[in-house]
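ok posting inputs for the manganese (II) ion job
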Amino acid sequence: MNSYAAHIATVQARFDAALAATDFESVLVYAGQPRVAFLDDNAAPFKVNPLFKYWIPVTDSPKSAIFYTPGERPVVFLFQPRDFWHAAVKIAPAEWQEHVELVVIDELDKLTAYLGDKIKTTAFLGEDFAEPVKSWPVRARNPQQLIDHLHFHRALKTDWEIENLRVANERAAKAHLAAKEAFFAGKSELEIHHAYLAAINFRESELPYNSIVGLNEHGAILHYDVYETTAPAESRSFLIDAGATYRGYCADITRTYSRSETGFFADLVKAVDAAQQELLTEIKPGLDYYQLHVSQHLKIAQILSDFDLVRGSAENIYEQGFSSAFFPHGLGHFIGLQVHDVGGFLRNDRGDLYDRDPRHPFLRLLRPIEAGQVFTIEPGLYVVDQLLEAHADAKELNWERIDELRPYGGVRIEDSIVVGENGNNENLTRDAFAKL
Ligand code: GLY
Ligand code: MN
Ligand code: MN
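and the output
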């Protein structure tokens, strides 16, 4: 069996189990449709329902749907409108079509006519803000138990999903090199952003998230996406957090560069990079991701001490919460069909949740590590004045040194890791850069 055939068999088995556990006869997964701006007739870029692209690698066919009854072939209703205003979406012959019953429709009424009374017993998964979908007489809309069941098991990726994530990382790595070159050529943030897109022939709406392209101080703004149109007089540092997609799967990569090869900031980038790589050697099934997060905090705390930004031992710096002021976000998250892939807080497929730790409120992944999971590892160290305010009187903080770092923003290094057995992990991101 090839990898897509095995993937769709796994998806089918997961839906079988989820439907049985939640007592539904069938499921209707709606791809969704574009939302139109308020008082306007312009649509926002279409983002397909992730549970739709879980089945088939079709991301650009709004108003399509998949109907699945356990024991039967999935039916894909492919929406191809008769519309002379827009170009029809071309769906090339592809392998997925051999695994489904394909029904081409040009009106949603044809879907409901095909289903007949079966629509009354089905569970609907998707957005339903528009007619006629809003009025379909389905048995339940987005039942939480069904979603939790599916989300819990999505954490383990199939081989086909990992292949797609590999390609997404190769695309993003290629674009990252173009962006790096544009930074060293002294380009503006917007020019760097354009160089990134051009390198892989992407339009902005194909990116998995708004790229973070920050020069100098902007590197400290965690989700900076302003893109200044003029280059600063001096580009000292560059933080880029940007991804790519392939068949609906997402890459999420961060790199930080120092213009100068030597000096304080160049050394800091190397230190954070080394601390990230050291952490990668600790990933193994059985540990909790939370333990990795704390281990990474201690390494960042050590760097804060080594660079004389904060005085004291790593343990003290961590215990007093200073490392959280410099590294406020989580160590990482699941990644796959969504950049922040789902299920990070789920304890089981019945929807029970892990308790969040108020010390680390932004950590999105609390599950034990298992082979087959894919997640990011993205430590950072930044000067975020808003967070340092709470420690304004702390004698441990070396403000002169912090002032020295502020004009560089900060550092983040982010890779995506496939967990293997016994620490035999795959670094999708570093492998992708190595291939170039
Ligand atoms: N790019 C968003 C994140 O790293 O989580
Ligand atoms: Mn990330
Ligand atoms: Mn990122």
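notes: The chain has two domains: 3-154, 159-435. The radius of gyration is 24 Å.
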